[in-house]
Design a protein that fits this description.
The protein has about 500 residues and is mainly alpha-helical. The chain has one domain (about 30-500): Alpha/alpha barrel (Glycosyltransferase), CATH 1.50.10. Helix content is about 50%, strand content about 5%. The chain has helices at about 5-25, 30-45, 85-105, 110-130, 145, 170-190, 195-215, 220-225, 235-250, 255-265, 265-270, 295-310, 320-330, 355-375, 385-400, 425-430, 445-450, 480-485, 485-500; strands at about 85, 135-140, 160-165, 275, 280, 340, 345, 380, 385. Strand 6 and strand 7 (about 345) form a beta hairpin. Helix 2 packs antiparallel against helix 19 (about 485-500). The protein starts with a helix and ends with a helix.
Length: about 500
């Protein structure tokens, strides 16, 4: 074969591969994925389930929560595959669901009502958690007791201890995050339920004041209740600024903007210590590149940039740091601080990697829209990033998660032809009450956990922790970091899917 034929053959092969990738991407149904990503939250509900409940294998659970302190704490969400209600990640989940509706609600169509229901399941619960002035309920359920049993949420007989914060036992990070969730949700509901929106905003201000007036970490106040599960590893100042930024956006009260401006320097140059399986690990990329249930830094910069992008007196450090975030993510940027698998998935250090892929994809799209509105580009050394570059990068992450990857596997349960069958999740693994109405005790679930059979109940829409950085995936209940779903993986993905729908 002559050289020209070889080149033509290579070109033909390349075009075939590109067409196959495009066809695969075109076959992805973002609308179906959006519906399922919201449905997932019904599978995580705690409390008395409403008549509108669509995930029928789940039943009422934890109906006595809060009784140990004479409060009604029935409701809220289980954060992952266990039966504890950790309020720090639950509040972040609620904030992200609200932000998804604020930015992309107009693209959600018939799914919007269910997105509102998902937010309200969180906000109604947080109104209960903050009903007594200067007390914030921070968690329900002793995690050590809970993790010692493999039980359906409907059968729980482990300790449902209520952990709460007071003036003498503060927990500013979780309190500020609850304030952010209530404030963001007040914006989301402002056009459809003005009265509820006002209730949320009023309570957000009260909770913010409590968190600010009585500062301290919940690591110290309720220690073994949250550590090593959801320890706060980078302090509460990022939550203070995050909460103030949302309150400013919701109320237009200059006091909160002053809070943001006067405190932003305290986190701008801080190193981020991330919680990696309960251990402290110094993160790459600096504080501007971190966003998730613990670190709000990148979210603050993107959120605030919308209102200051064309205001030279106020845009520093928010816009430069948001630009630094973009440069830390773009594959061809000289200052990239993440890695990408051969299949194209973004990776940061630690477990449950898809939480980074979904939350950073959300920020990429939101920031691209703000850039577009202000006719901006981002300069990363000799690389110029247009809004379309940010959108395209986010799309590669979405498509990978939905099945455009080397294994051809969707990492959203119930979406596509091939998805994880053995996820690490109590309710999904164990027979439902419809199938086995008898009470199942602490260790009665072990036989199902150890089984090689697929889970008995499909937790539709759940996004699991995801593959390893070599694109391999172990569909195993024992591999928690790869097979466990969480609410804070799904929440930002709701907005991302709405955009691509």
């Amino acid at each position: 074969m002559n050289r020209k034929s070889v080149e033509m053959s290579k070109l033909s092969l390349l075009l075939t591969m590109m067409m196959a990738t495009m066809a695969k991407s075109a076959s992805l149904n973002y609308s179906d994925a959006l519906t399922k990503s919201i449905l997932f939250f019904e599978g995580q509900r705690s409390g008395k389930l409403p008549p509108s409940q669509r995930m029928k294998w789940r039943k009422d659970s934890a109906l006595n929560d809060g009784q140990d302190i004479h409060m009604d704490m029935v409701g809220g969400y289980y954060d992952a595959g266990d039966n504890v209600k950790f309020h720090f990640p639950m509040a972040f989940t609620t904030t992200m669901l609200a932000w998804s509706v604020i930015e992309f609600g107009d693209k959600m169509g018939s799914d919007l009502q269910y997105a509102f229901e998902a937010i309200r399941w969180g906000t109604d619960y947080f109104l209960k958690a903050t009903i007594i002035p200067n007390i914030v309920v921070a968690q329900i359920g002793n995690p050590n007791s809970d993790h010692g049993c493999w039980e359906r949420p409907e059968d729980m007989d482990t300790s449902r201890q209520t952990y709460y914060l007071t003036q003498n036992k503060p927990g500013s990070e979780v309190s500020f995050e609850i304030a952010a969730a209530l404030a963001a949700s007040s914006i989301a509901f402002s056009k459809t339920d003005g009265q509820y929106s006002n209730v949320l905003l009023t309570r957000a201000k009260q909770v913010f004041d409590f968190a600010n007036n009585y500062r301290g970490s919940y690591n110290d106040s309720i220690g073994d209740g949250v550590c090593p599960f959801y320890c706060d590893f980078n302090g509460y100042m990022d939550e203070l600024i995050w909460g103030a930024a949302w309150l400013y956006k919701a109320s237009n009260d200059q006091t909160y903007w002053n809070f943001v401006k006067s405190n932003i320097q305290s986190i701008e140059f801080s190193s981020i210590v991330r919680n990696i399986n309960g251990f402290k690990v110094l993160a790459n990329g600096g504080s501007f590149a971190e966003f998730g249930w613990d670190s709000k830094h990148a979210g603050i910069n993107v959120l605030v940039s919308q209102s200051v992008m064309n205001n030279p007196s106020n845009e520093n450090p928010f816009v430069p740091n948001a630009n630094n975030l973009i440069c830390s993510l773009l594959p061809n940027s000289p200052t990239k601080s993440v890695t990408y698998s051969k299949g194209g998935l973004l990776f940061k250090v630690g477990s449950s990697n898809l939480q980074h892929a979904t939350s950073l994809s959300f920020l990429l799209i939101v920031y691209a829209r703000y850039m577009q509105a202000n006719n901006k580009e981002v300069q990363c050394g000799n690389v110029v990033a247009k809004p379309s570059d940010l959108i395209n990068l986010a799309k590669t992450q979405v498509d990978y998660i939905l099945g455009n990857n080397p294994l051809g596997m969707s990492y959203m349960v119930g979406y596509g032809q091939k998805y994880p069958q053995k996820i690490h999740h109590r309710g999904s693994i164990l027979p439902s009450i419809d199938v086995n109405p008898k009470h199942m005790g602490c260790r009665d679930g072990d036989i199902y956990f150890q089984s090689s059979a697929p889970n008995m109940n499909v937790l539709t829409g759940a996004i699991v922790g995801g593959p390893a950085d070599d694109d391999s995936f172990q569909d195993s209940r024992y591999n928690v970091s790869q097979s466990e779903p969480t609410t804070y993986i799904n929440a930002p993905f709701v907005g991302v899917l709405a955009y691509f729908k």
